[in-house]
Design goal:
- The structure holds two protein chains of two kinds.
- Helices cover about 25% and strands about 20% of the residues of chain A.
- Chain A has four domains: about 70 residues, Ubiquitin-like (UB roll) (Roll), CATH 3.10.20.740; about 130 residues, Alpha-Beta Plaits; about 60 residues, N-terminal domain of TfIIb, CATH 2.20.25.90; about 70 residues, no CATH class.
- The longest helix of chain A has 19 residues.
- By secondary structure, chain A is α+β, with helices and mostly antiparallel strands.
- The termini of chain A are far apart.
- Chain B is α/β, with parallel strands linked by helices.
- Among the domains of chain B are: about 170 residues, 3-Layer(aba) Sandwich (Dimethylsulfoxide Reductase, domain 2), CATH 3.40.228.10; about 110 residues, Barwin-like endoglucanases (Beta Barrel), CATH 2.40.40.20.
- At the A-B interface, strand 10, strand 11, helix 7, strand 13 and helix 8 of A face helix 2, helix 11, helix 13, strand 9 and strand 10 of B.
Chain lengths: ~375, ~525
């Protein structure tokens, strides 16, 4: 192709996807270009935070002039390339591949509480009508149910060897706690020396369970609520622990908190979480929670009272102190754990209420 | 942080000091790990062999509290070997001549004696940071929780000014804040020295502004008081504090010198605590008011990179608990204080935006899920991911500070011959009021230990895994000893997370004279078999 120097787009790189010409930037893969054009190319081993792996072969496409289908996730777009993302031959190949993968797994449909990506496999099986049972392959992967850790279910009979867990642990977390043993049907996701996760380099950040496309690695803690009948509702919020401020989706069934999932579009975390954000949400519905205002009795014990009684007494104590000792006798300590509205009203309680600057927070400790 | 979290994979040289980031800010640490895979150099200064220190190309296991000496010597080497960014110094800084003269005395050999690390390693660290194209500094409470916390921070600023590692992508001075909204507490004016948006209470114009906004004709001009001073004055006859409102802080466990704290709170006529659990501090209150927890309230918080983010309620408040802002407003209304007629968290947030120059462009509806990093001076402003890009605050030059080294408030001696330093662990948060009540955590961490170097365990006649006693000048606790090379010889570590091994019975030797931050990172102790 001879570039016409008079044309504005002459020097731009161009590719044709399903008959539509488009430009792309050097380094983009066919998959990235096609996704930009809203093409829904199926994948199982792909996670856009990770290096493309090209393992599942579902994303293969037809490229004019190349005899065999190419994996679109690992093949870079090239100038003048003509790509078909879903010709019948490729779609048939994808269906056969999915039928074969399905034959190796114990079950296709898993509870969405297992993890963020856990429905990817079943969704593709349905899309390609691949429940034919045409193949009767050997089952791959042996579940490790002896690992009694309370967070991560290691249900490897559901594993399809996409290596997303291994890669997220290495590339995203930098922990390298998960390894691959053996090859072929005997491929087994494991830890070094096949230890329990507790005795490995695992930090229980939960990234492996959230990227697993089949639920083979699953959120054991969330699955405790599998039997609750209500639908799962997700609420976007921010983790309550350190100040990185990771965005998470809190999962509820009815009025019960059942789990947490990382928000892939969270501006501070881009889908990452640690053990605290992933697994320690349930303090909020713990039976130790204070339910009613308490007032101390002369014998030193607390008595539950209604809000009006408690608030009246709380205010009276401050009014009494002001009357007896003056407005400088009152101090407020705000929380670094509560939201802005708490901190702001606390300082206003002191400044507007008493005209002093007797206000601080917990940052000095 | 002067620079955003998303750029943590960008520096070519990382200087992490006093930060156990893989345990305390694990998600931020993933950025640094990515920088390492791209070939960045990592220098870690920390007395302990933390996981981050294991990842480092150069680990400087400096003696607790010797940071200023290290940083002075690094600056000395950078100037001596002409690695300073002369253009940046000329264009954007002030006070370099005095600083340069001051530095001459502080050779690496001088610092090596104090820091107990080889002079060559100090030189290496200085050369790497000095030669960096994109050098970034990260620190946490290992820098600030000292009697010289301000000196430590200013010494880091000196290094950044010296090398021009400020105001551009992949550089900066980046404190990793400890609590989800500790940045927000300061932003909102819950500090003695500033109104909302860091408007100083000593400034006459802000004094007038808030006298009017809060309808408070008696408003003090200055005359601020920190929590540390307040606790010292509880129950005092002259100028005493006699009533206190505490929101969501377990003061008697997290603060240094537990006995002193308890005595202070007991001396009050009136103590009201707002919390979600009956914490050790709430138990001392006259009135305890149950707050709605995270996950039950709408609100806003700001993270360590100044990003303003929305919190949303997912479930109803537990029992009869109510949002903090509602509780505080109800008390205020009963005291006759005007301006507390809020119907929602949104009302409160929008008021604070109107009064805060750095939030002036923000409101409840436009912040989305963290669209902005403050300052956002007016609506339509994109926010400020990187501070100090073209100029420092108010267009003034960045000033070098002439700082000298000081010993910690208490140093080891024949009676208390061991350095104790404290911190956190990955699986526990602070005093475990929350993580301790999350199911499953006990499987990974169910008790606290005292980390002691194996050779010290042997030398001190201790047995790994058995109980020992540890005492400082303020008190004594008992806990299990764990032999580990994470601790250097002569320095031991434990977290403050477990109430039954409350290390803050021992701490509290001194406070930074400027900020009154406690020296929680240094406490001489003695240890013997229980």
């Amino acid at each position: 192709m001879i570039n016409d120097p008079s044309s504005n787009i002459a020097s731009a790189l161009s590719i044709t996807v399903d008959g539509k010409a488009t430009t792309f930037t050097e380094g983009e893969t066919i998959y990235q270009v096609a996704t930009r054009l809203q093409k829904d190319i199926p994948t199982l081993c792909y996670d856009d935070r990770l290096e493309a792996f090209g393992g599942c072969r579902l994303c293969v496409v037809e490229v004019e002039g190349i005899r065999n289908p190419v994996a679109s996730c690992t093949t870079k777009a090239a100038d003048g390339m003509i790509v078909k993302t879903a010709p019948p031959k490729i779609e048939k190949m994808r269906k056969t591949l999915l039928e074969m993968v399905a034959s190796e797994n114990r079950e296709i449909d898993v509870d969405p509480l297992r993890g963020l990506a856990s429905q990817e496999f079943a969704t593709l099986i349905n899309r390609y009508d691949a429940r034919s049972g045409r193949f009767n392959g050997a089952k791959s992967g042996t579940s490790n149910l002896k690992d009694l850790n309370p967070f991560i279910l290691r249900d490897y009979e559901q594993c399809i060897s996409c290596y997303r867990c291994v890669r997220v642990c290495a590339e995203q977390e930098g922990d390298y706690a998960i390894t691959v043993a053996n090859r072929g049907f005997h491929t087994q996701i494991s830890t070094e020396f096949n230890n329990d996760l507790r005795d490995s380099d695992c930090t229980f950040c939960g990234q492996c369970i959230q990227t697993c496309p089949t639920g083979a690695l699953a959120d054991k803690k969330a699955l405790r609520s599998e039997e609750l009948p209500e639908p799962i509702k997700k609420t976007r919020t921010v983790c309550p622990y350190c100040a990185v401020g990771c965005s998470i989706d809190l999962m509820t069934k009815g009025d019960k908190i059942v789990g947490a999932q990382p928000a892939m579009d969270g501006p501070a975390n881009k889908g990452a979480l640690c053990i605290k954000g992933q697994f320690t949400y349930d303090f909020i519905q713990h039976e130790d929670r204070l339910q009613k205002p308490l007032m101390k009795q002369p014998d030193g014990t607390f008595k539950e009272v209604d809000w009006n009684t408690a608030l009246d007494a709380a205010a009276k104590g401050f009014a009494d102190a002001r009357a007896k000792y003056g407005r400088h006798s009152i101090f407020g300590i705000a929380s670094g754990r509560a939201p802005h509205e708490a901190a702001y009203t606390m300082q206003k309680f002191i400044r507007a209420g008493f005209g002093t600057h007797h206000i601080d927070n917990c940052s000095r400790a | 942080m002067s620079n955003p979290l998303k750029d943590m994979d960008k520096p070519d040289t990382i200087f992490a000091i006093g930060t156990n980031m893989t345990e305390c800010h694990p998600v931020a640490a993933t950025g640094l790990k990515k920088a390492l895979t791209k070939g960045a150099k990592l220098i870690v200064a920390d007395p302990r062999k933390t996981h981050l220190a294991e990842l480092a190309h150069l680990h400087l296991p400096i003696r607790v509290g010797s940071d200023v000496a290290l940083l002075l010597a690094m600056a000395h080497v950078i100037v001596r070997e002409e690695l300073a960014d002369k253009e940046f110094i000329a264009e954007r800084t002030g006070g370099f001549v005095q600083f340069e003269a001051h530095l001459q005395r502080f050779s690496p050999e001088w610092a090596a004696e104090i820091c107990e690390v080889p002079a060559e390693d100090i030189e290496q660290a200085a050369r790497w940071y000095g030669n960096a194209k994109l050098g970034a500094i990260y620190y946490t409470l290992g820098i600030t929780e000292h009697i010289c916390g301000v000196d430590n921070v200013q010494s880091l600023c000196n290094l950044a000014l010296l090398t021009g590692n400020l105001g551009k992508e992949g550089t900066g001075i980046n404190p990793m804040r400890g609590q989800n909204n500790i940045q927000g507490a300061g932003d909102c004016g819950a500090v003695p020295n500033n109104y909302v948006g860091f408007q100083p209470v000593t400034d006459k114009s802000f004094h007038e502004k808030f006298k009017e906004a809060y309808q408070q004709p008696e408003m003090d001009l200055g005359n601020q008081m920190t929590k540390v001073t307040a606790l010292n004055l509880c129950g005092a006859n002259e100028g005493g504090i006699h009533a206190m409102l505490i929101d969501g802080e377990n003061t008697v466990v997290t603060d240094p010198d537990k006995n002193h704290c308890e005595k202070a709170l007991k001396a009050l006529d009136h103590l009201v605590v707002i919390d979600i659990f009956l914490t050790e501090t709430a138990q001392m209150a006259d009135i305890v008011l149950p707050a709605s927890a995270w996950g039950e309230t709408d609100g806003v918080q700001a993270n360590t990179e100044r990003r303003v983010q929305r919190l949303r309620a997912a479930v109803p408040s537990y029992g009869d608990s109510k949002p903090d802002w509602w509780i505080i407003s109800e008390i205020s209304k009963r005291l006759g204080t005007p301006g507390f007629e809020y119907d929602s968290a949104k009302d409160v947030f929008n008021e604070l935006c109107e009064l805060s120059p750095i939030y002036a462009g923000l409101n409840w509806d436009n912040i989305g899920d963290g669209n902005f990093q403050w300052p956002v001076p007016e609506e339509g402003h994109p926010g400020t991911p990187i501070l100090h890009e073209d100029e420092f605050k108010d267009g003034k030059p960045g000033l070098f500070k002439v700082i000298g080294y000081r010993d910690p408030a208490e140093v080891i001696d024949d009676d208390y011959p061991v350095w104790l330093t404290t911190g956190r662990r990955l699986q526990a948060y602070h005093t475990r009021t929350q993580t301790g009540r999350a199911s499953g955590i006990d499987y990974l961490l169910n008790e606290e230990t005292l980390e002691v170097h194996p050779d010290d365990v042997a030398d001190w006649g201790l047995i790994d895994g058995t109980m020992v006693k540890m005492a400082s000048r303020r008190g004594e606790i008992e806990l299990k000893v764990e032999a580990t090379t994470r601790s250097p010889r002569g320095t031991v570590f434990t977290s403050f997370s477990f109430a039954d091994t409350n290390v803050n019975i021992l701490t509290g030797s001194g406070y930074d004279p400027v900020t009154q931050t406690a020296e929680l990172k240094v406490c001489p102790v003695k240890i013997w078999p229980a």
